[in-house]
Protein 1
Amino acid sequence: MTKILLTNDDGVYSTGLKAAYDSVQDLGEVIVVAPSSQKSGVGRGISIFEPLRVSFACVNGFRAYAVAGTPTDSVIIGLFSIMKEHPDLVLSGFNVGENISTDAVTTSGTIGAALEAASYGIPAIAASIQVLDEGDKFDDHRAYSYDFEVGIKIVNRIAKNVIKKGLPDGVDLLNINIPRHATMDTEIEITRLARKIFLTGVEKRNDPRGRPYYWINGELIRDAEEGTDVKAVMKKGNISVTPLSLDSTTRADFRKIDELL
């Protein structure tokens, strides 16, 4: 029987996790192992200096394992302690908030979990939905209201094909991003990563005792080169599917690197 490991980075109680469950529940047995709380922005972080607690949670009509750790921790616990075998697919999502550009790929816990699964040769999908209010990314997602219907259908179709056919050579995971107002007629673009999605800034403030503290912030970049995920989602309102590889080695001429040595 087909087995699917489901995780996310918004936490086990997120409505996005329920939507992801709905997108693959008809494809096989779904085992849900996710962080017990919000863990956005932790990338592929792993807990190696503290023990991990796992508890059971019955949420949104299904049973889940809640891991007091990161999304990557959840994948590791799921694979090596709970399932004790490699599933046919790992799905990470739905993330509340788009995960596009190199900014997101290197910081997103959603993608970090998918990368961890991919490192063991397991086909992986990361799925995210765009938000129009940036504050939605950081709110309590247990009550987040969003129509996931289009995302559920798109992910179901892609997941079914990945389980049946596998991923192409050189592709370790698919990063899917659904625009806020997508319909089943919305164009799907196969894209590459844009360089940036944030114009990074730092805001300095003072606490009541006059000591400084800092908030890292940044405005969204809403346009980029043609063929990129940022252009597809932010500018054109298209669904973006970006094939990613674990191998970050540059394709530059190594002789040029040798000159630096």
Protein 2
Amino acid sequence: MTAPLLSAKGLAVSIAGKPVVHGLDLVLRPGDCLAILGRNGAGKTTLLHTLAGLRAPEAGTLTLDGASYAEQGPRRAARARGLLLQHQGDAFPASVLETVLIGRHPHLSRFAWEDEADGRIAREALAAVDLAELAQREVHTLSGGERQRVALAALLAQQPKLYLLDEPLAHLDLNHQLAMLDLFARLAQDRGVAVAMVLHDPNLALRFCNRALLLHGDGTHALGDSAEQLDAARLSKLYGHPLRMLQDGARRWFIPE
């Protein structure tokens, strides 16, 4: 069995006194694609930030690629895990390509500039998200969906082993939603990375993720294979609204009653 890229044992997380999870045992190995699902306010972003090492858990242990975040240090950790934030900000004018090249910073020494290889990696990342033709555009002129894909491209250019994605489908049209999910599923399958992403559509979670973590908003959770966790009864309880399952051969869909 391959070594885990991320391991959490007995993890307890809360925000403003509200429990997000308690007693979470989570292991993400190369090839895993985990969907994190729950209602608004359940703490999905807070948990993701904890897994990324941006905030300390209240209890439990967390290791990235075999070491704690303190042992890793910021630069080594940034080479191992990449985080897509829910909101993107651009404080200064920059081109799309310059913005994506930020993803290469963990791989550069303190006073080094990006070289030809870094530029090639950034352009390949832009092509992967269907933005190659906009490399020289001012990032402030982009639509919300285009800016989201720039953020995903910067993360691809970072080339981490573990991708933590907070609502990666925000602002994306249907075509690009499916394309981005397929891209990260293929990265997990073909390149052995691990992916954990906050999603709102259980149908997409079932289609593209092999594992699912359900956050109920009171500290309780359910974790397991997505094919087992994502059924009508569990999802109805999770979202507080009755859902019905439709099936066509091996494919399943969930629709609200």
